[in-house]
């Protein structure tokens, strides 16, 4: 049963800790006296807060000759910016030239001047009554009056970010930046409106006017505020200080983690956290609104979550904009500008039909909601494609269960949505189909020149002309056949999904001859590769050592894997299927395996381990219940859970056992899986179900709780040799503190430690029916389902 959120406790916390930053008092060592200034120069000085957590000063903009007047987190490597001064006229971030100066003048005026001394920005008030300025440990920069009151503060003038302790009173708004490193005004707004409704808007870019709302709190009234309180909770409250909308709650302690919430450049309002004191870490996502930006933004007018002629995918907490086959980005450095066709489009000249010059590239789960110009029902897929071929204005045909939509350029609202059980057919010109194609016109002109030159040289002899004619005919036939061969990457035998077919030579070159090994198992070896036309360039190339399948069977299995889309699964980019060479190309996971992160490097924080446990569980839930083809992983272990830049857990090797059609992996038994993570039913000749993955996850969960391997012969105490036995003993004797005795952060959260140990015990029950499903595991891990006390021998009444 789902637990009710304890709003009374939450409310008391908010009332106790909701104090506005105006009461925060500067200490002597962060006071900025009248007459003090900073100059915008490379590696210039700044004004830190007392603890040094925050700093105020100039930040150099990447690849530009200019500086932001900004506030940033000062103790983490990337110096994340949380506030910058903006131009009142446009709302863009103010970019100050080299040599500019910000100064608190002797008369109390706080201003920014260019190298000539001309004012380009100032803070209100105009200096009357200002005694000093201060950079506070909350991230708030304040101008303080003679009576210790705040005359001006950055918290009242947010750019795209809010911090714990910050309150926005309606009407107020946050404006996204244009891109990760472009601080110009972006395309999205978060507004707390006059009527109290909190709304995410797209804008009519490049204007500042709001366009389409894509998420809202649906609360109306007077006197509302958006509060990010000092415990890390974000909520909307009314004038009576009652919470009316929970935005992000139950975040880890602000004493242990830095927090920030931002309307990101991709339109997602994101609550980020970062472990204090861990310079090797990265910001991780605690909460996203909306959960899937691609599906949330369907607009008219407008192009959707991405630019025109592109499509949107959402994975790993961030959206990705991509071009379909036959299209490329207008500006590779600014994907938001959309895509353009790489071929000459179909002519609408009525004198000659060009339908025969085009075919289709198919993409599953892809559609363009609210943008079609024609619609039919009770038709076949072939009819839908043909009606698009016959229509010169049709660029894409979308088909689903007898329904057919026609889309014209520019394409809008494109997205991949696994809930849409249809497909999009992109009309593209056949290779070598027309002299209008620039690539083919060059070949044709080259052929013509050869023939003309040859005829001129040999024209004195009829016999030689005859020979020339025969030779020229042969040459034309050769060139025509050569240039009309189908591109192997678009062969009809490849899986018709959004995967790329690589040649073996491409992967040999991309991996530098398979030289940099990332990992090796009994069935495959993984190498690091660089492929220039893949987003991010880096990939992981897995060479399979054993494949007992025909080419068609292999590609059918690859197709099934390629149709999985989830933020907690490693993404399959493409494949190679050339005779004995069977390879899979995956996205590169920069942080490596969970095994190295958990057992080799510095111990991850408790919060990171909790998020990894939840992410891994959600990935398994997707494989078991949510993807089209049910997949039992059969080998869940830390080596098969990979981590990205943000330490998001992603399951790898899912579907590999089925793909390889084998009866053993790294063990010497006839079972699949890895010793120590294998469920009892493998040994008892019982049917194998999804519950084998639940068992393996339970073992993994204990490893995450304790930061210890499931089996370790080198421990001094033999009772600790088998982790799951030791964990159960600690639970039975009520000594769970022994599991996390060296982990101060986990000791602060012993209630969750106990809950997670109980979940782990349920997962490793010998009887599969006594184990929960992965859906129940996720609900328990996230606190939305009660965790019952496990028993030694579960009876029928306490089975799931």
UniProtKB/TrEMBL annotation:
Catalytic activity entry: L-threonyl-[protein] + ATP = O-phospho-L-threonyl-[protein] + ADP + H(+); L-seryl-[protein] + ATP = O-phospho-L-seryl-[protein] + ADP + H(+)
GO molecular-function term, one example from the UniProt record: ATP binding
CDD domains (alphabetical): B_lectin, STKc_IRAK
Signal sequence annotation: 1-24
Enzyme Commission number(s) from the entry: 2.7.11.1
Tagged with keyword Ligase: no
Gene Ontology terms: cellular component: membrane
Domain Bulb-type lectin, chain residue ranges per copy: 29-156
Family under the similarity heading: Belongs to the protein kinase superfamily. Ser/Thr protein kinase family.
Protein name: Receptor-like serine/threonine-protein kinase
Organism per entry: Acacia crassicarpa (northern wattle)
Organism lineage: Eukaryota, Viridiplantae, Streptophyta, Embryophyta, Tracheophyta
